[in-house]
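seq as requested:
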Amino acid sequence: MVQDTKDITMPTINEVIKKSLNPFDNSAARNFWEEQELSPTVESIHQKQLTQIKSVLREVIQDHKTRTLILYGDAGSGKTHFLGQLKQNLNDQAFFVYIEPFSQSDHIWRHILRNAVDSLVNAPAGQTDSQLILWLKSCLSTIRKGLKSDQQRLVDTIKSFFGKTDAVRDRQLFIDILKKTIGTTGIYNANEFFGVLYDLTNPDLYSLACEWLKGDDLDEESLKKLKVKQSIDDEDKARGILGNFSKISDKTQPIVLCFDNLDSIARLPDGSTDIQALFNVTSTIYNGNWKGFLIIISIRLSTWNDNYKRVRPSDLDRASIRIPLKRITLEEAEALLATRLYPLHNQAQPQPVSPIYPLTQQMLEKEFPSRKASPRKALELGKVIFQDYKKSLLSDDVRTTQSEQSNDEEEQLETEYPEEKIFQAEFQLLWQQEYKTSQEKITKISLLAAIDLMRMLEQALTALQVQGIKPKLLSGRYAGYSLSYLHPGKQERVGIVWTEDPSMTSFFNVMNACQKVIQQNICQTLYLIRDGGVGKANLAGNQIYKQIFTETNHIHIKPTLSSIHYLATYHSLVKAAEANELEFTGKIINLKKLETFICDSQILHQCTLLQNLGIVANSPKNIKNGEDKNDLQPVKEFLFNLVVTQGYMGVPTLIQRTEKQFSSVKTLDIQQLVQQLCQEQKTQIIDPKAKLQDQLICLVTKN
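struct tokens:
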């Protein structure tokens, strides 16, 4: 029997608001491939800019000529979200690549290659194949269509890569097809490159082929499996492989290279951003007549104005397409707010007349008299007004509950909470959210390049006020793998070298460089950070390793994956702070403030790598992330912090949000933790006699 919908009692909008999370809460900016669900989008916002880029992409599709455009706007104008929207709209017409900020200019080509392949191994929405496989299939499809009717063997061979025939896969024939149809002119190391593309079609070799393509320094056994002589271990090779991608893109859809968060790129000696290094790349691409790329440089307007004069005029001329992301209209701001509020309105009966209730048009007009606003400012206003309105709704509930308490009770329900406490709670929630993202993204240490790991470690040391930090302790090609700093107690110089390259040749070279540093007494203590093996006893690298790290004051540390997650989480917050995108309690947090809070909160004291280095001691003040499935304390802290930031909320909403953050924790355990918080008089159920779905929870203070 179908239930009559008229019998279902729907809550009023005010009842829905009481139970809900603030729909305007946001998180730190990250790259668009990490966003599993894009925030609701208003199609009219930045539609002109989207149309412009579509037009530029069509030109690239038609003539295959590479183009560069500058996408600029104020902080909060929605640049990163716009890139995600662009990918969502155009991923059927191009392959999208997100390039993280490069930390060292002399590694920029290897950095771009690694990030390009990391993006290409992602599958677009609605697809099972990765962008990389779709790119290869598209190329092969174009080649097949161009073959003559008497080349049936070649046609059958290509078909086999699509699973349409039982033809025997012939590696050399595949290489010959690509050499004949694509040519070898302008292809770097054609035999090995085409052979690795062949290996992408083999499930047993796919991962290894991806590792080679993105520049991992592979060991001898892995190189033999791929039938290649050497890894892509320097700038020239990386530039050559990227050029190969361009050459093949001439026969398939374009590749869109998106450079974002340029506030975090490598710095020049005077402290300014090395933006010229990026334009050196674009000049090489243009001078080499590379095909099939659309380069998008997304940058803050103030950063662009401060740095564009440092770029050679000839390089700027090649990036003549400039697309500004301007402030949005008041009508668009209203539509943006409405998209966030719609899920709440849709639960209520009757639904509010205004799509932005509890906000009003008058509130928007008062806050933005020019009738223009950045998307971020509009959302910030929504967050504040929603929270204030929610408090006003519940004030009667609080007074009623307090009047029912006995005079002997010394607790009272909290309607206002100190801003500092809310700030700390918001930060802890964001940290746990970003930490979870790091866990999901980084499943093994080798996914990150050594120079990126070292950059993350340097940022953490800086936040912890370690003095005398100097990058590049080693000399030569492995300089980026190292740094040194002053020991806080002895005032001696301590060196750190981090290498995860599987290649024993690379390991030997790093050990040789370490030995020279020790012989020259550049540092008194040397730490080697390496999770991988150190080679067989008869290898030269292993013998030098033993000389340095056996029965000496020099130490080898094997990092844990959780330590990498700590460093990566802080790194993501640093990027947001440098881009003016980090906000708590309505205030923008710059890098200096972030470093101060990180140091004071001792949040990094849980990182075992920093403990092993002697930088921090394990502290009870640290924020836990729920790594130990049997430790429910992080879950309990999450529950409490969520109530702190929301003020009031429905108990079911609290439980559901916690389940999303800690998917391995049982619902019953979460319910028991909620009860513990109430028993400890930190929180209280406002209406304990109500059904669970109707119960509200808020804070308690003790007088």
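Residues 537 and 543 are 7 Å apart (CA to CA).
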